[in-house]
Amino acid sequence: MSSRDVVLARVRRALADVPRASGPEETAVPRDYLREHGEHPAEDTVQLLAANLADYRAIVHDIDAAGLPGLLAHLLGERGSRSVVAPAGLPPEWLAACDLEVVPDVPETTPGELDAVDSVVTGCAVAIAETGTLVLDGSPDQGRRRITLVPDHHICVVRVPEQVVASVPQALERLAPGRPLTWISGPSATSDIELDRVEGVHGPRTLEVVLMRP
Question: In what residue span(s) does the LUD domain sit (predicted)?
C-alpha cells in the first residue's frame, strides 16, 4: 500500500459518517482545541507579541498616538527614504511630519514603479502574540497586497491593545475569509539554498512594527 493509499484511507474513515451530498458548510467541525495557552493580562500579551516579532528579526517600536508622526518621520529619515507608499485610508496625520514624496496606492502603479519606492507604511487587521504574526486584510489603511511585497522597507502600525490577540484561533474569529489576507511573520526570508538565510526574496528585507498606544 502506497503512502497515497494510506492518506486516502484515513480521509475516507474520517468522512464515513458524513452524508455524500452534504457540503463543507453543512457539517459542524468540532473546535475543542485551546483558543489560547492560558489567560494573561492584555499588557503581557502585547509584550509577548513584541518579543516574538523581535525573534523574527522585525524591529519593534512602542509609542503613543501623539508621538507616532514624529517617530515615522524619524524612521523614514533614518533609512534615507525619499518616497513612501501610503494606502488611501491611512490616517493623513501619520505622515504629516514627513518631508518626502507620498506615492498613492492606485491600480495603475506598475511593479517597476513600486520597486523604485523606498518604503511603505500601513496599518494592520490583527496581530497574533503567540506567533509574532501580523495579518493584513486589504482594508483602506492597509491597501493592496502588492504594496507590502515589493518595496524593500515596510512599517506596520499596530493599534495596541485592541488589534492584538493571543492566538491564531482568536485572530481567525476577527478575519473575513473572503478578503485578501496577508500573514507576515518577520521580514521576507528563505533558507532553501544550503540553509543560508537570505532576506528580501518575496517581500521587504526590513520590517518595522510600531505598537501604537492611545
Answer: 113-212
